[in-house]
Structures are given as C-alpha cells and as structure tokens.
Design goal:
This protein has 5 helices and no strands. It has one domain. It is elongated and about 70 Å long. The chain has 77 residues and is mainly α. The mean pLDDT is 88.
Length: 77
C-alpha cells in the first residue's frame, strides 16, 4: 500500500493489489473496486503491436519513435 500512496495511478501496483485482493478472497466490492481502478489506467495491450506495424510499414516511423534522432536540414532557396 505504500507504493500506491506514492504513485496512486501506477498500473502495475494497481494490478498487483487487485490480484492480491482477489486471491485473499477480500470482500467482492473491494476486489471489484481494485480491478476497476487498474482498468482505468491499464496500458493498452495493442500498443507494442501497433508500434511494430508502424515501424515496418510507414516510412520514417521507426526513426520518429527513437527519442534521440536526427533530421537532415535543407537550405531554403
């Protein structure tokens, strides 16, 4: 619970809390609330696949995903 006090919207911490409450057979309303809190901030499962398709099919996509990349500069006529 200390981790959630510091980072209340961390999806990994919320997921662990929800799973723990479920396995410990906590009251249904607490477990459901925990799962709903996790789903509200859950990272979409499709994101890595979409990024991979973009890199494979769209020219320049892989370069733009690189946080430190370069662009060739051209002189204005």
């Amino acid at each position: 619970a200390r981790g959630l006090a510091v980072q209340p919207r961390d999806h990994d911490l919320l997921r662990v809390q929800a799973l723990a409450l479920d396995k410990l057979e906590a009251p249904e309303d607490r477990a459901s609330a925990a799962f709903e809190a996790w789903r509200a901030v859950q990272v979409a499962d499709e994101i890595p696949r979409v990024r991979a398709r973009c890199s494979a099919k769209v020219s320049g996509c892989a370069n733009e995903r690189n946080p430190v990349h370069t662009h060739a500069m051209r002189a204005v006529p």
